[in-house]
Amino acid sequence: MITLKLANQTVKIDKGELVNYIVNDVEFIHQKGDPGWRNADTEMFPIIGPTAEANFKVQTPKGDAVQDQHGLLRELAYTLVENSSTTAIFQKEYKANTKVTNSKYPNKSTVSELYWPYDFQFQKKYQLTNSGLKITFTITAEEGMPYMLGYHPAFKTENSTTQVSYGENTKASVQDIKAAGSVAYPLRDVTKAELQNTNAITIETQGFKELMLWTEVDTMLCIEPITFYPYDVAQNKLFKGFSHIAKLPAEYKVFLKPIN
Fold first, then answer.
1. Annotated domain spans of the chain
2. For the segment 196-239, what is each residue's pLDDT rounded down to a tens digit?
């Protein structure tokens, strides 16, 4: 367990996963084991969304890849590469076409192994600042590699009256989000939103194109920055939502800013 501290802020990270963000003794992160979701955060890469209806195949310029829902990155282990009192950097590396065991098999999937036809390196950097927690994702791969990226943090919510505020005074309630079901609740062209609890927090992003919201309970809410909303296309057309690596690594940022 890695612990970061700055003034009244404490962050705890378990094998790359954000499991605590505490400010003035207030916990903002959904706790593993509580109702709603088995995790506290994860990443969706190199695809977002389900693939079962496409026989778990995703088209790329190098041929079909076998991917389960939200990609294979979550099946890889993070390595800690740098750590200080306020900063921690974790990294995952993948070699093209390496078979990765699918943890969803056999209970939730019919494919036992996943693979992607490109090498990549994926870094996740946590940094505490005076205004909050900054999380930076850096993707290094060969030029032209297609990908989608989504960040999937889960926040504690107090009850069914919790809301997410965004845009020009637009709001979505927990009940609205629950009603959207498994396809999540998209916030089109939105890169900043506020979770309105008694203890409120703002999520701001750079590089991501929009957000989607998901929960099945009143006491947890996922506010997910994404590069593409996958339910806009059929599962066998997910390639239409790809971004592509340029000459330099791709970088995306998320800022969690508690509101006093």
1. 2-258
2. 987 899 999 999 999 999 999 999 999 999 999 999 999 999 99
Residue keyed to tokens 């998320």: 254
Strand ranges (E), 110-237: 113-114, 120-129, 132-141, 146-147, 150-156, 163-166, 170-173, 185-187, 192-196, 201-206, 210-214, 220-226
The reported pTM is 0.96
> Cα-Cα-Cα-Cα dihedral of 236, 221, 125, 58, to 10°?
-10
**Helix, strand, coil share of the chain (percent; to 5):** 10, 50, 40
CA 182 to chain centre: 15
Q: Which residues pair with 41 in a beta bridge?
A: 153
Give the bridge partners for 172, in sequence order.
Answer: 164
Give the domain 2-258 fold. Answer: Beta-galactosidase; Chain A, domain 5 (2.70.98)
- Which residues have a Cβ under 8 Å from the Cβ of 180 and sit 6 or more positions away? 213, 214
Q: CA angle 100-48-148, nearest 5°?
A: 90
Instruction: State the DSSP string of 115-141.
Output: B-SS-EEEEEEEEEETTEEEEEEEEEE
